[in-house]
Task: structure prediction
Amino acid sequence: MKFRKASVVIVELTLRTPFTTSFGTSTVMHRPFVLLETEDGRVGVGEVPTLSNPAYKAECDHPAVLTSLREFLLPSLVRAQETHGGFSGVDEVIRAYDWVKGAVLAKSGIEAAMWDLMAQEQHLPFWKMWGGTRTSFTVGVSIGGKNIEQVLGLAENAVSLGYQRLKVKIWPGFDIEPARALRERFPDVLLQVDANSAYDMTNWTRLKELDGLDLLLIEQPLYDDDIYLQSLISKEITTPICLDESIHSLRDTEVALALWGDLAPERLVINIKPPRVSGFTEAIAIAKRCEEAGVRTWIGGMLDSAWGKASNLNLNTLTAFTLPGDHFSPGGAYFVEDITTASLSCTNGLYTVGPGIGPGLEIDWEVFNRLSHPQFEVAFA
Ligand code: OSB
Ligand code: MG
Result:
């Protein structure tokens, strides 16, 4: 495959329901999309699910992603094409920019665009390319509310639509009460909480009060860059700890497996977000390694557009991803207007993949272009 041009645009997506986490409330997302154009005129699309600033973690903001793409990643692709004449597949694309440290979200946008081109060339849905077999599976919702009433309202709506798995955002002072209220209201639902690293070594012990509420897991209680301290507190709290922010690669996963040791199958869970681990290739490698170690995993979301969500849902067909992921908004569609011709839908909390090429949905170019702010283009020789 030979490229003619890469362009990066920012698509402005407005959330239907504002989303609150320990690091703030999001309403409008400015999303870089990588458009890779081949010499024969096909276009591959990759979303980079950025947030408005680096409060979730480093380099997840759009200014950082744009810089990495413009200054380092896309120029590396241009040089690799000059040297090798083209790319035979996704692995060769990854190899072109592998020398860049970090920039996991930015890298994932290029990889996703390349997967889209490969899918178009092979006329296959992602799930078939990835060897998925489970065509129907349970999906969950992530609730980021400002107060108990709002959380209960969003949960009520999700459960009435048939969702059987809820995740709720917590932070110091807004933790035990919302979790207890949800558990009392929904005794049988799969319930988990996400702290987005809002606790530290002085106040985490408060979370021990969550043991007894039969939670599936506590996501990222401590520091975004820590694995070790979370492995220590995991020995003192019976609810499993799930790592999100601190896992970027298979190597990070190996560190967690080693630190949890024999406790890993029972006490460790990994949230695998493809963009946070540089792309689908690494996401699959992590899931398979965890499956081998008997450790549970699931696919997290980043309030992605329907394009990104549909791609992640294809990944869910691999049985190595054992728990339901974050894929649906409790308030209905995530965005006032999304960029695909059809919206994502599921029945009774179950999603079924279809025969559609790539993610299984198509870009609505009228909406995409109308919501896009062009940023830059990189020409290939
Ligand atoms: O920590 O999982 C997170 C959204 C933005 C940033 C971080 C996180 C989230 C979510 C996922 O909770 C929400 C979703 O995409 O459904
Ligand atoms: Mg999380």
User: Anything to note?
Assistant: The mean pLDDT is 97. The pocket of 2-succinylbenzoate (ligand 1) is lined by residues 51, 56, 142, 194, 196, 244, 300-304, 326 (CB under 6 Å).
